[in-house]
TrEMBL record:
It comes from Actinophytocola oryzae. Pfam families: Peptidase_S8. Belongs to the peptidase S8 family. It is a single-pass membrane protein. InterPro entries: Peptidase_S8/S53_dom, Peptidase_S8/S53_dom_sf, Peptidase_S8_Asp-AS, Peptidase_S8_His-AS, Peptidase_S8_Ser-AS, Peptidase_S8_subtilisin-like, Peptidase_S8_subtilisin-rel, T7SS_pept_S8A_mycosin. Its main location: membrane. This is Membrane-anchored mycosin MYCP. GO terms for molecular function: serine-type endopeptidase activity. It is found in: Cell membrane. Residues 102-397 form the Peptidase S8/S53 domain. Residues 25-79 are annotated as: Disordered. GO terms for biological process: proteolysis. The active site is at D111, H144, S348.
Amino acid sequence: MALTRATRVLSVLAATSLLLAPALPAAAQPSSTPSAPGQGMAEPPPLPSDFPLPDDDGAPDRTYEKKTECVRSAGSPTVLQTKPWGQDMLRFDEIAKFGATGAGQKVAVIDTGVTPHEFFGGRISGGGDYVVAGGDGLEDCDGHGTEVAGIIAAKPTDPGIGFRGIAPDAEIISIRQSSGNYEFRDEATNQTFKAGNLSTLAKAIVRAANSGAGVINMSVDSCRPTSAGAISPPEQQVQRALEYAVDEKNVVVVASAGNLPEGDCKEQNSPDPKNPTWLVIPPWFSDYVLSVAAVQRDGQVAEFSINGPWVSVAAPGTEIISLDPASTGLANQSVDEKGNAQPIQGTSFAAPYVAGLAALVRQKYPELNARQVMERIKSTAAHPAANGGHDNLVGYGMINPIAALTAFIPAEEGIAPDKAIKVPFRMPPAYERDWTPMQVAMIGTGGGLGALLLTLFVVHTVRRNRRDDEEPAPRARG
């Protein structure tokens, strides 16, 4: 099972390009225990109570060698003034009015490393390296991690540049966990392994949780079919590391929902929330992770965004603009191995919007724990028209930073949520009309009419008799 991202080559600005190597690495395979597709796997099984915390030695699991040169700029950088559509949709210009810029918050980025771009303003530190022994995480050969971190905390000083991060004063801790440019070749088995797998991901999560970060962003996923078997030991290591981060170290964890194609996943997931056909790690562990789907400009979920019952929320994931890891400029394109350019997109770039929002919420509400922050982000999202306000495509919907920073959440005040009350349905009693008033009215009306007719008859008779009495007697004729 491989940790993967879409194979791509980054480009800088509208007119220049970066050369980047393909995707990410192989990981240990899941247990071979057979199971019916998706059955009982919408949620992971609980960990054994004695399952150990992954031992973080801070070192790569193998000796990887660089096989592809790091990303490089193909031209001179120019100022990219266009503001990403996601910034307008999420109302970036209004966020600072609510006293939230990410100041004092640390976000650990577990990725391909982060280049110390000048738009971070020195707010970046190295947290470790699982690709090169002794590294500090501040080299990004692939270019991916720098772009992700830029969406979180970039702060250009030039007012002519429209792009900026959602939490522009937050600090970034870079942990390099994977790289498509580095690989290890096992001569005995003739297998090649890219740098990064579930075991090193688990160690990186533990390291990030111990780094002092309040938020972790992981734009890296492993996807495999549910038919491959039950949960594997490396997957359990990730599960245990996430449990440690959230429940023991009070860290908000954010992960991308995954892109198609992703690892072994070539098709969209089953629409049945109880029977997924694919499992995406870490999103599968939804008890501990805010899993983020990608939405496009028209508000529809992006076709490449993997669906699943574990999806928590959604954020912009297409037509991305972020930092160029190979220059002082910005990037807005990707270029494949054939030289074909296309806009940068992916759930990898939706996740950092949510990670940055988590940093803003932690700054505004320092009394909230990690789970409360996660719940605030979900409860204030724009819910889809689905049962419970949640579906497999966008989870609880597009994030709403302004609402997340201002809404009143009853649970935070100790107010219990409303409970459904069972009200039995009963037919109303039969309505038996009382006809007495109608009968009295009809009798009275009939009696009155009879009296009227009798009166008219008597008057008519009296008048006729009168006429007969007054008629003169006939005269005798002579």
